[in-house]
Amino acid sequence: MNELDNFVMQFIAQQRKVLPDTDKQYVNQALYDKFDEIIESVIFKNAPEISLIISCSYQKYSLMIPAKQNSKTKYYLLYDKYLAQHLKMFNAVFLYQKNTEPDLWKFSYQLFSEETYLAKDMLVAFYTAINANALDDFQCKDLLATNENNRWIDIQVDYILAHEVGHWLFRLKQYQKERDSAIIEINEVLEEVYSKYSRKFKDKDYISLLTESIDKIRINGNMLEECFCDSVAYSYIFSRLGDDPPVDKSLDIIKGLLLCLLHTQILSMCNFTVNDEGNYEIVNSIRLSYFRNYIMIFLNSNEYQLLSEMLETTIKEYENKITNIILPIFSTIETRIDNLYDSTEIKEANSIIRSILRGD
Ligand SMILES: [Zn+2]
Description:
Number of strands: 3
Number of helices: 13
Order of helices and strands: HHEEEHHHHHHHHHHH
Distance between the termini: 45 Å
Low-confidence stretches: 177-186
Structural class: mainly alpha
Strand order of the largest sheet: 1-3-2
Bound molecules: zinc ion
Mean pLDDT: 84
Radius of gyration: 22 Å
Number of domains: 1
């Protein structure tokens, strides 16, 4: 490990609220292997260096970090293992056949305590953590390591890693003047995808929907990047299946990916409720419609019907088991937090804590 690596590692350790890593499915070596395989699949001539750094922290999001040294840029993909633990929990809740509400209460309090802890709102972090711990253990906990959940989380981790590698490719395109190698014009890639669609689905009504989403993507530069990264991830995942994979296998992968998008949508809603920022609604709806359209490219036309049935039933089931229950829970918790701030005793206690922290 060189000086720059050390510097970046220290920087990350300071920035993140690190937790004990309890993930049994993904020992770090498995992640390094996965990462190497993804890089191998997109690598090109003269590619700058990229290293994987693994973290497990409350921040839970992965990101690409460019670091400059002696006019050369080295890239670091910071992969945060903690997100996968949340995705696994959401998968388990989705698989649970009885009432999911008690688990969603516990999980919501936990999510709120993590978000408010990061926002340094210790009073609320403490209150929500106590509530999360006071509730019974998760009823769906036996479903955390079923074959189905393991298979989905595997796809979801592939997706997260390959999506971030997509950011690396995207940035290279922006930074590198010379485009002699396989760094492709990103806009062209997307245009190509869409023109393929327009040809393939000439007479279908959702072409208009697709045109609408292209327009949205065009005005929003960020969205262009996110959709590009998603397509890198989808292509990588499907490339591992070989030609003409059995349809149930493809559909299972698509289901794992769809669940991943739906879970992260709920996580960003929680983040939005706590921090009041972001435009998650637009971003998520574009990504979801991009996914629904893009994913068809990996199936044969006689499989479209099965795909659309699977998507419909999964989304319905997700709404019934998760979305329609967790969103009202989020707003109830929000009201309880507001009440907490309104109570005189708490106000007093809070001001005492603050003055102690200030050292008055
Ligand atoms: Zn991204």
